Amino acid sequence: MSASEGDLEKQKRRHRGPLIGMALVVVFAVGLIGYWVIGEARDGRSPIDPTLPGASPEVTAPVTAPVDDPPVTATPPAAPPTPTQPAN
Asked: Would you give the DSSP letter of residue 49?
């Protein structure tokens, strides 16, 4: 296999267009992602805090325990069984 053509100026001219096109695509993609992120931030909704504007009413209602229930307390461990005398 022989070596490729060594004219660097000709290669630079041939690659200039595709390289500029790839750079424009990257700039466009970064701009699109930035526009999306800014739009999401401006929207005001938060996936963590559903009480912010835009949340549905079903999500904002807090779940509470009934007031009539007594507080739950831990029960002490049961005493070990006492040994019984064998019948004679």
From this structure: -
Dump pLDDT digits (tens) for 47-85: 666 565 655 555 555 566 566 766 677 777 777 777 776
H helices present in 44-83, as ranges: 57-60
Yes or no: say if 53 and 43 are a contact pair by the CB < 8 Å rule.
no
* Cα–Cα distance for residue pair 86/41, rounded to 1 Å: 78
The tokens for 34 are: 């930035």
The answer to whether the pTM exceeds 0.70 is no
Cβ-contact 52, 46 below 8 angstroms:
yes
Separation between Cα atoms, residue 88 and residue 80, nearest integer Å? 24
Contact assessment for residue 50 and residue 59, using Cβ atoms and an 8 Å cutoff: yes
Q: What is the pLDDT of residues 9-25, one digit of tens each?
A: 888 899 999 999 999 99
